[in-house]
Amino acid sequence: LSIPNIPPIDGIDLAVGYENVSLVTEEFENKSVLILGRGNAAFEVAQHIYDATNYIHMISRSRVRNAYATHYVGDLRAINNQLLDTYQLKSLDALVEIDLMEHEFLQNPVDGRIQIKYKISDTDINIQERQEAIAYDKVIRCLGFKFDDSIWHSDVKIEKNLGRTNKYPKIQFDYQSFDYDHLYFTGTLMHSIDFRKSSGGFIHGFRYLTQTLYRIFEYRYHKIKWSSMTFSWYSLTNYLIKRMNEADGIYQMFGQLVDVILIDRINRQCRFIDEYPARLLPRLEEITGYRSENLLLLNMQYGMNYSGAGRDVFAFDRVSASVDTADRSNFLHPVLYYYDSSLEEIDFENVKAGFLPLKSSTRIHHIIENVLTLWMEPTEHVLPLRV
């Protein structure tokens, strides 16, 4: 349900799309190549043709965002970043930040080479001369995709998201269309909700969201309550340890899916609901069929200020070394939130993506980060949890 993103730029038809670019490296032998875009697709192409080319230039309006710094797998993966080395260490290639919408592509009628120029005629003469001095044998478009709305009847109007997420249809937190009841979106389109926040745009993420949607359907249309299990609250610690070490959904969809424990203080029992959408917590009873005023939530999260483009994620003091400073853990780690009243929509206002609301009565407990993502040490993980 996607089509290539082809911006309305004069001469953009001179570029070859990522979806059609040749994989035969001999075709790029001694060629000067311009790549439009700066995502994994752009760097994958650069990596593939690098050994054959004369040089590669890459342009985009945004800076490079390394996935190891942002903790978003849609950003540049280290396996594809060879071009950064040749740019910074050898000056063979280049990355430039410009707005493509202010430029146009022209082809030399003599040699067929392609130039990129400012549209504005009164541009500084020095800039014009530099642009005229650079020409490319090939231009490759790697500008991502957008939602293909041609599947709809002409009378159907589906609203799109705003800003950087306008390539996705606008959907509610239960994956339902804002415009039409009973119309749901699944697969990578679910990333409309957690774009640049978690892993919903990728198979290792949206497979869990798809399971979530199935469970939503079961209760909404068949009154089959959300899959759950009950146990004595004396078994709660053991089960929490098991989940934080084995749960895959809340690990892959960190900050978006949480484990929910409904606490029955009268009967001293707990009902466990796994991998529930955090933003649907205000509609817990409506979605699952279960209700409780006492909620314990297990969330996987990074440190508050650890992720981001340009962050030094390899700083010497990046690891929290003591249980007493577990709340300063930076790497992905389990966090427990306890609420003695149900959550409302207003509670999520101004809450940073990946985190849960902090109300006046909220209790929070961080399990200290672990390089092996194993939380089974008696003194570091289990005992503080029991206390």
UniProtKB/TrEMBL annotation:
Highest taxon of the lineage: Eukaryota
Name used for this protein in its record: Uncharacterized protein
Organism: Rotaria magnacalcarata
